[in-house]
Amino acid sequence: MDKNHCNTAIHCTVEQCANHCCSAEYCSLDSIHVGTHEASPSVDQCTDCMSFKRK
Ligand code: SF4
Fold first, then answer.
1. Do 54 and 16 contact (CB within 8 A), yes or no?
2. Is the pLDDT reported for residue 2 higher than 80?
3. Which domain holds residue 39?
4. Which residues make Cβ contacts (< 8 Å) with residue 12, sequence separation at least 6?
5. How many structural domains compose the chain?
6. CA of 40 to the centre of ligand 1 (A)
7. What whole-number percentage of the chain has pLDDT above 70?
8. Average pLDDT over residues 25-51
9. Best of 17, 22, 33, 34 to mutate for ligand 1, by most ligand atoms within 8 A of CB?
10. Residue 1: predicted pLDDT
Protein backbone atom coordinates (compact mmCIF):
# COMPACT_ATOMS: atom_id res chain seq x y z
CA MET A 1 0.00 0.00 0.00
CA ASP A 2 1.43 3.36 -1.07
CA LYS A 3 0.49 5.89 1.60
CA ASN A 4 1.86 8.70 -0.57
CA HIS A 5 -0.88 7.99 -3.12
CA CYS A 6 -3.86 10.25 -2.48
CA ASN A 7 -7.17 9.33 -4.08
CA THR A 8 -8.67 12.80 -4.50
CA ALA A 9 -12.09 11.20 -5.08
CA ILE A 10 -12.12 10.03 -1.44
CA HIS A 11 -11.71 12.93 1.00
CA CYS A 12 -11.02 11.68 4.51
CA THR A 13 -9.77 13.26 7.73
CA VAL A 14 -9.32 10.05 9.73
CA GLU A 15 -5.58 10.30 10.25
CA GLN A 16 -5.68 7.37 12.68
CA CYS A 17 -6.49 5.00 9.81
CA ALA A 18 -3.68 2.94 8.26
CA ASN A 19 -5.14 3.66 4.82
CA HIS A 20 -5.06 7.44 5.23
CA CYS A 21 -2.88 9.37 2.80
CA CYS A 22 0.03 10.65 4.87
CA SER A 23 0.43 13.96 3.07
CA ALA A 24 -3.15 15.22 2.67
CA GLU A 25 -6.72 14.68 3.80
CA TYR A 26 -7.50 11.83 1.43
CA CYS A 27 -7.74 8.07 1.44
CA SER A 28 -4.93 6.13 -0.25
CA LEU A 29 -7.18 3.28 -1.42
CA ASP A 30 -8.60 3.04 -4.94
CA SER A 31 -12.03 2.39 -3.47
CA ILE A 32 -13.63 1.97 -0.06
CA HIS A 33 -16.54 0.07 1.40
CA VAL A 34 -19.12 2.12 3.31
CA GLY A 35 -21.68 0.48 5.55
CA THR A 36 -23.87 1.15 8.57
CA HIS A 37 -24.18 -0.12 12.13
CA GLU A 38 -27.83 0.97 12.32
CA ALA A 39 -30.97 -0.94 11.36
CA SER A 40 -32.49 2.22 9.89
CA PRO A 41 -29.79 4.84 9.20
CA SER A 42 -31.08 8.43 9.29
CA VAL A 43 -28.05 10.73 9.62
CA ASP A 44 -24.45 10.66 8.42
CA GLN A 45 -23.26 9.52 11.85
CA CYS A 46 -25.02 6.21 11.19
CA THR A 47 -22.60 5.33 8.40
CA ASP A 48 -19.15 3.80 8.72
CA CYS A 49 -16.09 3.32 6.58
CA MET A 50 -15.76 -0.46 6.60
CA SER A 51 -12.31 -0.17 5.02
CA PHE A 52 -10.90 1.48 8.17
CA LYS A 53 -7.83 -0.19 9.57
CA ARG A 54 -6.13 0.85 12.77
CA LYS A 55 -2.58 2.12 12.36
S1 SF4 B 1 -10.12 3.48 4.66
FE2 SF4 B 1 -11.85 4.81 5.21
S3 SF4 B 1 -11.27 5.73 7.20
FE4 SF4 B 1 -9.43 4.87 6.25
S5 SF4 B 1 -8.48 6.58 5.17
FE6 SF4 B 1 -9.78 5.47 3.70
S7 SF4 B 1 -11.77 6.52 3.76
FE8 SF4 B 1 -10.61 7.15 5.59
1. yes
2. no
3. 7-49
4. 20, 21, 25, 26, 27, 49
5. 1
6. 23
7. 96
8. 97
9. 17
10. 58
